[in-house]
Amino acid sequence: MTEPEHVDANALAGPLSEILSVDLTAAERRCSVCGACGVFAELHVTVDGPGLVASCPVCRTLVLRLVRTPDSVWVDLGGTGVVRVRLET
Amino acid sequence: MVAWRPATLAADRWETDSARTLVLDVPGWPGHRAGQHVDVRLTAEDGYTAQRGYSVASADEGERIELTVQRVEGGEVSSYLVDVFAPGDAVEVRGPLGGWFVWDAASPDPVVLVGGGSGVVPLMAMVRERRRVGSRALFRVLYSVRMPEDRYYRGELGAHRPGDGGVDLFVAYTRRAPEASPRGPGRLGAAELNTHGFPAEFAPVCFVCGPTGFVETASDALVALGHDPRRVRTERFGSGGGAR
Amino acid sequence: MNVVTRGFRGRGGQDPARVPPGQYETHDFPVLSAGPTPRVDTGEWTFSVEAETGRTRVWTWEEFRALPQERPRVDIHCVTRWSKLDTDWEGVSLDVLLEDVETTAEYALASSYGGYTTNLPLQDLTDGQAWIVHTFDGEPLAPEHGGPARLIVPHLYFWKSAKWVRGISLLHQDEPGFWEQAGYHDYGDPWREQRYRGD
């Protein structure tokens, strides 16, 4: 094995649902570093560490990290870039 | 915030020696779209908890959902759910989760479903939802599985049930094929994705689900065949097999 | 209040003298990751120690491999709840690497190729408690386990044992690392279950 096993950011839907009222995984995003456009769910997420780490599938920039402790959700959205959430109309 | 809800085992079915479908009663279940998943949480008497994600296998049918769980070697959650969990016992579920890997039941677009191993679970939900709503969208299902006895949903998927007209199934056995099969064992290749899927000019929506390596290979092949990457939606399970 | 699931016991039956509370023993070596695996060629690899004064010592791979080597056999404890007993490593004690460094600092921040960081008290890196290792179980350390070289500090949770380590900075004040910024404990003693901030 040469890479840690990653999954899609679909796996973030549950943890993020604890703090967000919209489903971010279906939102469109533009990478803050490489400019790649895509959907949040297409991020690569490693789930086998102390927390969840999402990175850009194109440039591998760290997009988000999330830690669930017994009483808190800690989330760093520092690399998220621009996100578009479509509203129900 | 999506609430945790108690979910009681109402019934179960064995799909294979190591995979079990759990029929759960979830009071207050708000309904789901085909392809979505849930988080399942187990709590021991001493307060220890463990949780994993599982795709929903059933169509949107009231307050009852079905999950199919594959036993994973050393997996504390899957081992419990496959071997110990008994009718009447309760776990907690949170969901439905995820808005990307979902089939829009109102869309007439053709659909290519590519599943590796237990990755067939959310694809089965799409076939079932298609049947439930009476959709005419054309479905082509490509199912990669090691050997005949590893197939899930044998009496249903590809069995030409009423309402499943327009759903075609191709099974690629990777280790051992049935004796009568003209296709020997081998991996699902790009040529088969082309032949048994839809051509890119038909602009199908493609859903690819399974272990991470399988999904990478199959989705890369679809894009190489000319499919719009934005219409190739993926759900990687990691290497564990059973967990979402 | 969670619903208790009848018949679910988690993983019991651990040796309380060897396995800290809330941990279970594994015989695998799970990969503990925080994103993509950096590729570091030993021809370009360096390890540095930067004192709070800015004075920096740098070792190339050849220089590092020429230092006195030790073979610690230790138990490791990951905050994701697995523990692995009697693991065999080979590498250089931090006592050797810190020997000639003039410092009055009390804290250290380890940094990795790929951007990972983790913080520790400096005194937890000395007196035979920490190593920069290049070999696991007699084999060169694989990239997914932190190769070419990683830090190991086995008496703290394993996220402190930075993979792909490239250097250590000595600081007067504690500066939280990658996981410590995001809710994990600044010290991380497995025997006191210091998993999260406030534990």
TrEMBL record, chain A:
Q: A Pfam family for this UniProt protein?
A: DUF6510
Under which name does UniProt file this protein?
DUF6510 family protein
Q: Which domain of life is it from?
A: Bacteria
Q: Which organism is it from?
A: Nocardiopsis tropica
From TrEMBL, chain B:
Keyword match Translocase = no
The record's annotation in Pfam families points to: FAD_binding_6, NAD_binding_1
Concerning SUPFAM superfamilies, the annotation shows: Ferredoxin reductase-like, C-terminal NADP-linked domain (SSF52343), Riboflavin synthase domain-like (SSF63380)
Q: Which organism is it from?
A: Streptomonospora nanhaiensis
> What is this protein's name?
FAD-binding oxidoreductase
Its signal peptide is: none
Q: What keywords sit in the KW lines?
A: 2Fe-2S, Iron, Iron-sulfur, Metal-binding
**Entry annotated with the keyword Phosphoprotein:** no
Query: Do you know which Gene3D superfamilies this protein is assigned to?
Result: Nucleotide-binding domain of ferredoxin-NADP reductase (FNR) module, Translation factors
Q: Which InterPro entries match?
A: Cbr1-like_FAD-bd_dom, FAD-bd_FR_type, Flavoprot_Pyr_Nucl_cyt_Rdtase, FNR_nucleotide-bd, MRET, OxRdtase_FAD/NAD-bd, Riboflavin_synthase-like_b-brl
Per UniProt, residues of the FAD-binding FR-type domain are 2-103
- Look up the record and name the cofactor or cofactors this protein needs: FAD
Automatic annotation (TrEMBL), chain C:
Q: Where is the Oxidoreductase molybdopterin-binding domain?
A: 35-179
Return the annotated region ranges for Disordered.
Answer: 1-25
Gene3D superfamilies (UniProt xref): Oxidoreductase, molybdopterin-binding domain
Q: Which SUPFAM superfamilies did the record assign? A: Oxidoreductase molybdopterin-binding domain
Q: Which PANTHER family match?
A: OXIDOREDUCTASE MOLYBDOPTERIN-BINDING DOMAIN-CONTAINING PROTEIN, PROTEIN-METHIONINE-SULFOXIDE REDUCTASE
The name under which this protein is listed is Sulfite oxidase-like oxidoreductase
Give the organism the record lists.
Nocardiopsis tropica
